[in-house]
Design goal:
This protein is of the alpha+beta class. The strands form three sheets. Strands 1, 2, 3, 4, 5, 6, 7 and 8 form an eight-stranded mixed β-sheet that branches. A five-stranded antiparallel β-sheet has the order 15-14-13-16-17. A four-stranded antiparallel β-sheet has the order 9-12-10-11, covered by helices on one side. It folds into three domains: 115 residues, Rossmann fold, CATH 3.40.50; 64 residues, ATP-grasp fold, A domain (Dna Ligase, domain 1); 99 residues, 2-Layer Sandwich (D-amino Acid Aminotransferase, Chain A, domain 1). It contains eight helices and 17 strands. Helices cover 27% and strands 28% of the residues.
Length: 312
């Protein structure tokens, strides 16, 4: 199965923890030809979606990537395309999904670009309101203040943030609350999310990887002392845990829809008993799951993509 990975530049990958590297390495191990490009290398020429890309083989030892000369190819020349560009999930990210959606009927694109475009990672979780914490989405400072008055301690975060960027904890009565609200709403021009603070974050948030709608691996991310963010980008540590009945309920409730919408590789975040995010753009965690659980999910992802491609 010839595969194109649309991703961040190879030289920017952190090999020790990068899930795209794992998938590419496993593809090379199977003898599957691979190529790579960035979203900036996608374009449309004469109504045909194309990519300026390089053939690549991926290895355990340095140099980890061995590439060919760059050439332009139609997206339809590939059997499978993985969209693995990290957020931010901005308008350029969304526009790249429009180009990927033109790949053609015999090219499998994962995650499905139409579903990525419709599934903002913070907003998508709110479609299951009984699974999510109390939340308000607003661009009004007065709404933020009212929510804090109702719930006491709250979290404010940008709708398009990633890796813990811009996530703030505050409370009703905080003299900085209005200023925070003004900053995150750009004084009424930008939306933000306001959620009730979940004290369980002190012991970490749970990342669960779902493959084709099924939970296949998980770990807990524990914030650094003095921080409230369970993101590995800002230094959170990882540890093993066992899924609770509530964790399994959440996976069961959302898994069928994820599968039906072509969201094959998904990472969900749970704090306490609440679903907080559904990460569909470029979820990570394969290396951590291999270390903590001994589960190799790269081959599973390739098997699922191969089955779906054969069914086209």
């Amino acid at each position: 199965m010839r595969t194109l990975y649309v991703m961040d530049p190879l030289e920017k990958l952190h090999i020790e923890g990068d899930s795209t590297y794992v998938m590419m390495r496993d593809s090379t191990a199977r003898g599957w030809p691979c190529a790579w490009c960035t979203p900036d290398d996608l374009s449309v020429r004469d109504n045909t979606a194309v990519a300026r890309c390089q053939e690549v083989t991926t290895h355990d030892d340095a140099p980890h990537f061995r590439t060919s000369e760059t050439r332009e190819e139609p997206l339809s020349a590939f059997d499978c395309i993985w969209m693995r560009k990290d957020p931010p999930f901005d308008i350029d990210y969304i526009f790249s999904t429009y180009i990927l959606a033109m790949a053609g009927p015999k090219t499998l694109v994962l995650n499905d670009p139409r579903s990525i475009a419709a599934s903002n990672e913070k907003m998508y979780a709110l479609q299951w309101p009984d699974l999510s914490p109390p939340t308000r989405v607003t661009n009004k400072v007065s709404d933020v203040l009212a929510f804090a008055k109702e719930h006491g301690r709250i979290v404010i975060k940008p709708w398009d943030g990633n890796g813990g960027r811009g996530v703030l904890v505050t409370a009703d009565g905080d003299p900085n609350l209005r200023s925070m609200a003004e900053l995150l709403t750009a004084e009424g021009r930008t939306y933000c999310l306001v959620q009730r603070y979940l004290p369980e974050i002190k012991t970490g948030d749970k990342r669960i990887i779902l493959i084709d709608g099924e939970p296949r691996g998980w770990f807990r991310r524990v914030p650094q002392p003095g921080d409230h963010r369970g993101n590995m980008h800002v230094g959170a540590t990882v540890e093993a845990f066992e899924l609770s009945a509530r964790d399994r309920e959440i996976c069961e409730r959302i898994g069928g829809r994820l599968k039906d919408e072509g969201l094959v590789f998904v990472g969900i975040d749970i704090i306490g008993d609440h679903l907080t995010e559904i990460n569909v753009t470029s979820p990570t965690g394969l290396r951590e799951i291999a270390t903590l659980q001994g589960r190799l999910l790269g081959p599973e992802l390739l098997d699922v993509s191969h089955r779906r491609w054969r069914a086209l």
